[in-house]
Amino acid sequence: MIVIGLIAGVLAKWVMPGPDPGGIIITILIGIAGAFVGGFIVPSLFGGPEITRISLGGILIATLGAIVLLAIYRLITRRAV
To answer: Domain segments of the chain: what residues?
Structure first.
């Protein structure tokens, strides 16, 4: 999950560029969290495959989770400033 999260964090940063507080490190951590969130939510809601190994589907699910978490993170940090 951690390797998939690292890949997802980098892809999420590529899809949603911008000046984030914390830079790439926070984005990678959000990617790891997105991998866990996507890995648990998608199979539960849609009956998709669980993320158990590195695969294209797993990376896509983790990236979508990371993008959602990155968007939420940006909303929270913009309101706090």
So the answer is: 2-80
